[in-house]
Amino acid sequence: MKKNNKNKIGYVYLPMILILYIVGNYILTSTGNAVCESSGCKIAEDTINIDSLYLNCMGALFGVILILVSWQKKLSNFILYAGILFESLMIGYQFFVSGSMCYYCLGVYGILLLTAVARFKFIVPITTIATVVVFYMMVKFVMLDGVITKTSNTVFLFGSPTCEHCIEVKEYLNRNNVAFEFKDVLDMNNQYIMKFFKISSIPVVVVKNIDNIDILLTKEKVKEYYKDKSKPSFNLDDMLKGSSVIPATGGCKVDLPCSE
């Protein structure tokens, strides 16, 4: 009887908790009270090519499948290992690349690991986690969050030394005593950041505020920003939602020579 109860914890009860956790998060999100509201959660959503709703549905379905095949221990364990591998890659990306953690994802990950522990399965999960950690440590990634949010600087100019528009913006910022850090787009790290935010033109000025980040495209927008208190810019959250904004004038293509 005790053995059956232990089996139920790992094969039935914890998968049920996973389903309730995912469904509960969806309900809270629908009412504007998400489990996770950190920047890491927003970045995690935007690094996936499918909508978060479908991802949550897949997660809930994953839990249902674990319960349905619970009587076939080997198959159930194999599916669980696949889920742990997927979440390990997600958590690894957040920790080693984006620099911001999604607390909701950590909750899912924790439940999966507890499920493995309840089933007395340790070798495969530990090996999976170790492999993912070694992979991310060996491969060079750009710390997206760290490049901007984890520095003392508040203004960043992404541009090229040969771009006339960039030079003009640089001179404008200097004339107005705006302290900024220049980010050369020839640097692969900076190119990666711009591609991540779907920005394909320069100059781009990124202003780090207390509670958000403003992204200014073209020299005209930069000048308007420092002249007008309304700050006509693109917010980071808006940039992450989707479409790339390519200004018709006042900027240069990132991957092409600059010309008037």
TrEMBL record:
Key word Iron-sulfur present: no
Keywords in alphabetical order: Membrane, Transmembrane, Transmembrane helix
Positions of transmembrane segments: 12-28, 53-71, 78-96, 108-136
Keyword set includes Transmembrane helix: yes
Organism domain of life: Bacteria
Alphabetical list of InterPro entries matching this protein: Glutaredoxin, Thioredoxin-like_sf
Residue ranges of domain Glutaredoxin in the record: 155-208
Pfam families: Glutaredoxin (PF00462)
The protein's name: Glutaredoxin domain-containing protein
Source organism (scientific name): uncultured Campylobacterales bacterium
High-level lineage: Bacteria, Pseudomonadati, Campylobacterota, Epsilonproteobacteria, Campylobacterales
